[in-house]
């Protein structure tokens, strides 16, 4: 199990309805994209971090380890905005407004990723996917997602064990040995993926699978107070952004 999934299963908000957490996380994401980068995205990022470290109970180290990956993509997407290609200053030159556009993009995307992480850190996929059928998602699509979610963790565990076995047999002592080990790892993982899928199909057929996976979904009532607090937080962020923007201008 990935660290973010383990954190979601042990979250303080595990018992809350996924719709509540979706309203908060996706609401922050929309605010990060729709509001001006300064000060809107900064305020959204600060609010998301405060909620994650405070009420949600996410450890700072866990948050940083999960956030640094999307943050790297944000930086990678912002760097090309610093340059202009094919202009009068040469084939590649610094764009006049490149730093401004890059900073704006970085602020928006990094704040939006924190909103998504808020939802991911508090909502396990096993709680979310079965409820998607009530939202109108076709049942077969949800079933495929559930099966793929399960198989993904099984394959990751198998790959980890194979790598441990290769390391114990000195499979990474040289570059040539590492390449041979990588090829063997890919081949073994490919074969095991088909084996897992076949065994899963056999198990479902033996249990009378009729096209629908029936799973127990823990009951959770929607909290009106939580939704009201979410609406108040989002409205406060919008209002504070407008006030600060006018005061700066």
Total number of helices: 9
First-last Cα distance:
49 Å
Q: How is the main sheet built?
A: 2 strands, antiparallel
Please indicate the count of domains.
2
Shape: globular
| Contiguous runs where pLDDT drops below 50 for at least 5 residues | none
Estimate the strand proportion: under 5%
How does the helix and strand content classify structurally? Answer: mainly alpha
The counted number of beta strands is 2
Secondary-structure element pattern, one letter each: HHHHEEHHHHH
Summarize model confidence as the mean pLDDT.
Answer: 84
Strand arrangement within the widest β-sheet reads: 1-2
Keywords: Cell membrane, Membrane, Transmembrane, Transmembrane helix
Subcellular location: Cell membrane
Transmembrane segments: 38-59, 66-85, 105-123, 215-244
Protein name: Cobalt ECF transporter T component CbiQ
Describe the fold and architecture.
It is built from nine helices and two strands; from the N terminus they run H-H-H-H-E-E-H-H-H-H-H. By secondary structure, it is mainly alpha-helical. It has two domains: 3-123 and 220-248, no CATH class; 131-206, no CATH class. A two-stranded antiparallel ribbon has the order 1-2. Helix 2 (18-34) packs antiparallel against helix 3 (37-53) and helix 7 packs antiparallel against helix 8 (175-206).
Keywords for this entry:
249 residues; mainly alpha; 2 domains; two-stranded antiparallel ribbon; 9 helices; 71% helix
